[in-house]
Amino acid sequence: MIAGIVGLLTVALFMLLYYHLPGLLAVIALLIYTAILFAIYRFLPITLTLPGIAGFILSIGLAVDANVLIFARLKEELRLGRSLPAAVENGFRHAWPSIRDSNASTFITSLILFGFGNSFGVSLIKGFALTLMIGVVVSLFTAIFVTRTLLRAVVETGGLNSPWWFGAERPKREPEVTA
Q1: Is 9 in contact with 27 (CB distance < 8 Å)?
Q2: Is residue 171 scored above 60 in pLDDT?
Q3: What's the pTM?
């Protein structure tokens, strides 16, 4: 439990320091992710064994990874001089194929592990696979819908439109050529 809290705080600190405002939004989305996941575990009565906890922790990594991909693309778009609303939309659009592919491959692998979980006498694998599958689905939801909604809300307020707030420097400008 202590290791999980320390790990979560370390990730939150990194996200805040490196991505600034989007990092804060990612931390909020991660807390929403965790709340949704625990609600699902409570609703489905899933017993969290040690392998199940490992699947949960791995799925937290996937949730953070999706936000990192989105924010890296957002920073690139801002560095190219795009407006904040365009940078947010382009960031999500360009990050989506990577997020989709990594989550799909993890989900398929989890499905295979779940299917063969009892075949080799190691039923604990099913708990790991189940928590990882649920985590992948919830991670996709929070990365694509929750984080996007939070970013769009910030953009609509218009108060924090400096590239610094989004972890990017000022846009690169071509040097002027004088004759």
Answers
A1: no
A2: no
A3: 0.79
